[in-house]
Amino acid sequence: MTTLWDRSRQVAVREILDTAVRLFAEQGYEQTTIAQIAREAGISQRSLFRYFGTKEDLVCGDQDALGELLKRTVEQQPADVSPWDALRAGFEVVLTANHTPERALELSRLIFETPSLRARYIEKRLRWQAELIPVVQVRLGPAAPAPDPRARAIVATVFACVDTATELWAASEGRLDLADLYDQCLAAVRDRD
């Protein structure tokens, strides 16, 4: 059951994010300050930091929580689901976990167009990969006596395909289908011809 406090928090987060995205679009990410965002949103900087830990979190979201959601979703897939399909299911859940597809598109464009945001995005995604490797390894069954590279390769490939598809989707202004782009990327990598 969602409480009044939860609903109030969701409204505040949405209003702060709307303000931040508007300012980022008008002035650019680097030129927009936390002070400006707080002032425009009608809150103190301290309050803004209660909702969002860093300026990057306004765009990238709570990556730790999203990474945990991704891991949990992959773990919860039926045992007969391949690692490839389990990871795809995880990314489908994560993409719109906190945002509408339209907002996800706006934020994706901002991430891919802003070097500092993209660096932060990559840093956090590398942590997600490290946390997913053991989950995928379990799905693959017992490992060979030597270190088994399959889980690491699958996770890295899926992340590369997700990122490539998302970048192409953002560049197309959402006109292309993100799931179809991902499937095309993965098919190109897995093609053995």
Q: Which properties best describe this structure?
A:
about 190 residues; mainly alpha; Arc Repressor Mutant, subunit A; Tetracycline Repressor, domain 2; 2 domains; 10 helices; globular
Series of secondary-structure elements, N-terminal to C-terminal:
HHHHHHHHHH
What fraction of the residues are assigned to beta strands by DSSP? under 5%
Instruction: Provide the structure class.
Output: mainly alpha
Measure the end-to-end span: 52 Å
- CATH top-level class of the largest domain: Mainly Alpha
Count of helices? 10
Question: In this structure, how is the largest beta sheet organized?
Answer: none
CATH fold title of the largest domain: Tetracycline Repressor, domain 2
- Report the CATH architecture of the largest domain: Orthogonal Bundle
Uncertain residue ranges: none
| Global outline | globular
What is the CA-atom radius of gyration, in angstroms?
Answer: 18 Å
Helix content: over 70%
Oligomer: single chain
What is the CATH superfamily classification of the largest domain? Tetracycline Repressor, domain 2
Question: How many strand elements?
Answer: 0
Mean pLDDT: 88
The total tally of domains equals 2
Description:
This protein is globular. It folds into two domains: 50 residues, Arc Repressor Mutant, subunit A; 133 residues, Orthogonal Bundle (Tetracycline Repressor, domain 2), CATH 1.10.357. By secondary structure, the protein is mainly α. The model has no long low-confidence stretch (mean pLDDT 88). α1 crosses α2, α5 runs parallel beside α8 and α9 packs across α10. The chain has ten helices and no strands.
